[in-house]
């Protein structure tokens, strides 16, 4: 039987494939790769979307009871049988980010086009529409009115939102030791791309990949108390640092996906403006497709780094989504490109 993460990832990938059938010009070329992210909504097993009001069952989970961890965070554990209803709310691809010099003061450009960030922007737009639908009495996701303090809208009980990504988030969550299976891929890619093309920084600083760490292009924020040493092998990066994404030749002001997702796990997905109408909306789970993966590092990056945060208003808390990895690979993703040892690969120019 497929795991819960596999079911969520399979649905998201299927939604993407169906879109590519309808719009084939958007499909990445054979020599290109991109990152993918999607938000999937789940509903209780025996309840359809328009029957969720008043239900307390948490989708995909055997219990909605919160479990406190040693570090003070809260997580809900225990994936159960698949819900009757799963729906892909939005999805996006993208790997690019505008440099600081290219940003627009008019607000007419999207500065950060990484897939995770675009998917969350799409989800916010979805919530705006659902607020209107709720006022009209036609929302399957939000209730209007109710007794939740200043918040006029609430997510119907039993509905959960899950983030599916094709690769680990850029920044801190992607810095972890290279494993034996990763080394095999690296060596094979070198034969196709050449050592300088495949990983120039690694070639300049590391004499061996047997004690190495996965790299991230995100740079430590300026004037940080600690920065990357760029020493050989496993000491190339420091961990736990806030980072900005690399731009097209110039630095950016956009924080890494790891840092943004850490923020979402505290402040919610809804953003500042929607917080006037909605309480914090947290991810039930983060499902990462097949790629190099280190659970402890990802959890520390997305949850553990916020352990010193404290809150007194707004209903905010330190939330820990269920983090899991699927055995499914995104066919247009970076990991699939690395496994293809026959041709050189580059990022997709169509996906921002």
What can you tell me about this protein's structure?
The chain has helices at 4-22, 115-135, 180-193, 195-198, 200-205, 257-267, 271-274, 295-302, 334-339; strands at residues 32-33, 36-43, 67-68, 74-75, 85-93, 95-97, 112-114, 142-148, 151-155, 160-165, 219-220, 243-246, 251-255, 285-288, 319-320, 322-325, 346-347. The protein has 352 residues and is an alpha/beta fold. The strands form six sheets. A five-stranded mixed sheet has the order 5-2-10-14-16, with helices on both faces. The protein is globular and about 60 Å long.
Supply Rg: 21 Å
Residue stretches low in confidence (pLDDT < 50, at least 5 long) are 52-81, 196-207
Strand arrangement, major sheet: 5-2-10-14-16
Mind describing the biggest β-sheet? 5 strands, mixed
Number of strands: 17
- What is the CA-CA span between the terminal residues? 36 Å
List keywords for this structure.
352 residues; alpha/beta; five-stranded mixed sheet; three-stranded mixed sheet; 9 helices; 20% strand; globular
